[in-house]
Amino acid sequence: MQVTVSPAGISGTVTANPSKSAMQRAVAAALLANGKSIIRNPGLSNDCLAALDVAEKLGATVNRKPELIEISSNGIQPRFDEINCGESGLGIRMFTPIAALASQPITINGHGSLTTRPMNFFEEVLPQLDVKITSREGKLPLHIQGPLQPKDITIDGSLSSQFLTGLLMAYGANAEEVTITVQDLKSKPYIALTLQLMSHFGVNVQQQNFETFHFGKKQQYQAKDYTVEGDWSGAAFLLVAAAVAGKAEVHHLNTESAQSDKAILDALRSAGAYLMPGMFTINIEKDGLKAFEFDATDCPDLFPPLVALAANCKGTTKILGVSRLAHKESDRGITLQQEFGKMGIVIELNGDEMLVHGGTGIKGATVSSHNDHRIAMACAVAALTADAPVVIENAEAINKSYPEFYDHLQTIGGKVDVAVNA
Ligand SMILES: O=C(O)C1=C[C@@H](OP(=O)(O)O)[C@@H](O)[C@H](O)C1
Ligand SMILES: C=C(OP(=O)(O)O)C(=O)O
């Protein structure tokens, strides 16, 4: 699908889409519980749909209603010997240890960019928990056979927090007096979100400094009623759109959320945007924008919207944390450099540092999403202040996290033309 976004002013009110990070965790917890859980404001992005499909294959019954989803479960009781996590990094890294709670052999698969993302962690760690595993040299498909036995273990958290999220969720089902110790954990707020979600579903973990995670007496996930929060990582694009091209009011964003990407507010403030945050509504308006510095090591998904923001800020913006981007849906440091380069914005990559030379004028161009949802959305936002339309190829990539994105952009004034067959 090809989408053309034309330069336009932004003005309007919109409600943030549901967070796929929260939704996927909730589906996993509902699967691990006994009884009927209700998920309100459910996400229907591809990653969320993949999580629902995995939950069904591992034993849950999913009943979709107009405003909510019911998930009934009796814990892990696989109905199939293969699960498919779609393109979701969180999905595969969370559901692999969960599937390993079963004693039967299971193949874990996925498609698209997920087939090239590293899973070596599991080969190092799962055998220590009595799980047999083979892979295609650290990549999909994974063949596992449990049952996973929670034990004291030390792991490396530097590549991704998602592996720890998976272990925490799986341990929650039957761990007793064991501790996970983590070295060099990145993306810590995502672990705070995991612990918050687990606690909502009745499993509490004692953590210290995000280094040790202790499970005391045996606990059990309880079926719960859960409302999915608005997604800061998707809303970041709308907020930046307003900051560079007009104004907007975005609803259903919790400023007290555990989501790491609410840090977009700090970056917008540093860039000089005019912000009026309420408890669940953010009002934002364009003001004199200036280059800024921001450390995105623990919120790597903010790089694409930050680059769209920086492209509009006069001067050189410095963003730290580039090393966190290599293994996402694309190698995002490089894809941002390439695609923004086509729009006339020079980006330098110096080790862990990204320098964006902004305020030089954004040019109309044909760009590629590299099948990466956040690259497509960043280019769409950059188009708002370009000198001519920007054509985005493989624009359907947004469906991974935010299928409503182009509609939402239009709701607040964006000019978006979709060529379905292109
Ligand atoms: O746990 C999660 O929901 C996520 C964790 C982050 O990954 P890393 O821990 O690999 O940074 C983030 O990039 C991803 O989009 C979602
Ligand atoms: C990297 C992302 O997700 P995941 O790792 O879950 O595929 C993302 O949403 O940008």
Automatic annotation (TrEMBL):
UniProt-listed Enzyme Commission number(s): 2.5.1.19
Catalytic residue list: D301
Record key words, sorted: Amino-acid biosynthesis, Aromatic amino acid biosynthesis, Cytoplasm, Transferase
Pfam families, per database record: EPSP_synthase
Pathway the protein contributes to: Metabolic intermediate biosynthesis; chorismate biosynthesis; chorismate from D-erythrose 4-phosphate and phosphoenolpyruvate: step 6/7
Ribonucleoprotein recorded as keyword: no
GO molecular function: 3-phosphoshikimate 1-carboxyvinyltransferase activity
Catalytic activity: 3-phosphoshikimate + phosphoenolpyruvate = 5-O-(1-carboxyvinyl)-3-phosphoshikimate + phosphate
Subcellular localization: Cytoplasm
Keyword Cytoplasm attributed: yes
GO biological process: amino acid biosynthetic process; aromatic amino acid family biosynthetic process; chorismate biosynthetic process
Description of how the protein assembles with itself and partners: Monomer.
Family classification: Belongs to the EPSP synthase family.
PANTHER family: AROM/DEHYDROQUINATE SYNTHASE, PENTAFUNCTIONAL AROM POLYPEPTIDE
Descriptive protein name: 3-phosphoshikimate 1-carboxyvinyltransferase
Source organism per UniProt: Chitinophaga jiangningensis
